[in-house]
Amino acid sequence: MPVSEAQKRAMQKYKSKSIKRVPLDMQTSDYESMKKHTENTGESVNGFIKRAIAETMEREKK
């Protein structure tokens, strides 16, 4: 089912208020290693990065 114009506007409004894009540059070889890892674990690259950040922040709490 196609997305209506109202749905598109609602999604854009939500994203503009709630989502912050964070560009990430990395070596192609590092990306390929990460991609292979996520394919083996069934996780998306985006999900892996978010989980890695959350776990690191939790571990480093003082």
Tell me about this structure.
The protein is mainly α. The protein has a domain at 26-62. 69% of the residues lie in helices and 0% in strands. It has 3 helices and no strands. The chain has helices spanning 5-18, 28-41, 45-59. The longest helix has 15 residues, at 45-59. The model has no long low-confidence stretch (mean pLDDT 95).
Terminus-to-terminus distance: 48 Å
Helix content: 55-70%
Low-confidence residue ranges: none
Structural class: mainly alpha
Order of helices and strands: HHH
* Main beta-sheet strand count, sense and barrel state: none
Radius of gyration: 16 Å
Mean of all residue-level pLDDT scores: 95
* Strand-residue proportion: under 5%
Quick overview:
With 62 residues, the chain is mainly alpha-helical.
Features:
extended; 69% helix; mainly alpha; single chain; 62 residues
Task: Give the helices and strands, then pairings.
Elements (H helix, E strand, L loop, with lengths): L4 H14 L9 H14 L3 H15 L3
